[in-house]
Amino acid sequence: MTSILKYLLIASITVSAVYSLPQVKGDNQKLQGIIDALINNTLNSIIDGLDDPITVSDINLNMTDDNLNGYLDISSLVLEGITGLVATSINTNIFTLSTNITLNIPEIQLNINYDTDLLLLNLVPLYGAGLVSAKLDNINVDIEGHVDISDGISFSNTTIVLGLDSGVFELTGLLHNAEFSEIVTDALNDNLVPFINTYQTQISNIISPIAESFINSILNANKTEIKELIREYENIQTKLN
């Protein structure tokens, strides 16, 4: 009799677990959708608040590092196309809160008026005044990291990888020499895009910590909507537990 009761208990637990699986799976999918929507809505909120083109004037940078010493003054910076940015993929693991985001910008046009006098590696002089322009096509940005939604949204342990299809560059005024500027322009047009795509890992190691800090500084622009989504996330998480 004891054995029969034991088998009935096991069967009951098994049946209960089987019937509960679709609900748990549905809640997991809903939970993942909420986190992904949280990230996407935050991104859209930031993009919607941007002007296009973005214009910045009077940027003055003074570098005192051994590798780069001197100044860079930007009298005008115009960036067009950033509002075309879309998230083509957002994938978040609901248990670890690790996330993988792919962003795409169809086209960016950048124009900078500069005046600079720098010494690179205490050896190479970089000076001049003129224009830097770049037209970049089909820029892909892959972001991997851990997302924290305890207070708004932020990222940690972030890796950012850049890739682009093509680019056209122009540089004038370097060393106050038109011919030298043309040589540098040709070198940029021939080599910069292949360089970026070939050395993605090395470039990522340099830009990821800087980009993570920059992203986190602007991500909480609209906390009200974010916290409403977080409350829904917490309600479902409680249900799952």
TrEMBL record:
Keyword Transcription regulation: no
Domain of life from the UniProt record: Eukaryota
Gene3D superfamilies cross-referenced by the UniProt entry: Haemolymph juvenile hormone binding protein
Record keyword Signal present: yes
Signal peptide (from-to): 1-20
InterPro entries linked to this entry: Haemolymph_juvenile_hormone-bd, To_sf
Keywords recorded for this protein, A-Z: Signal
Gene Ontology CC: one annotated term: extracellular space
PANTHER family hit by this protein: IP17226P (PTHR11008:SF29), PROTEIN TAKEOUT-LIKE PROTEIN (PTHR11008)
The protein, known as: Uncharacterized protein
Taxonomic placement: Eukaryota, Metazoa, Ecdysozoa, Arthropoda, Hexapoda
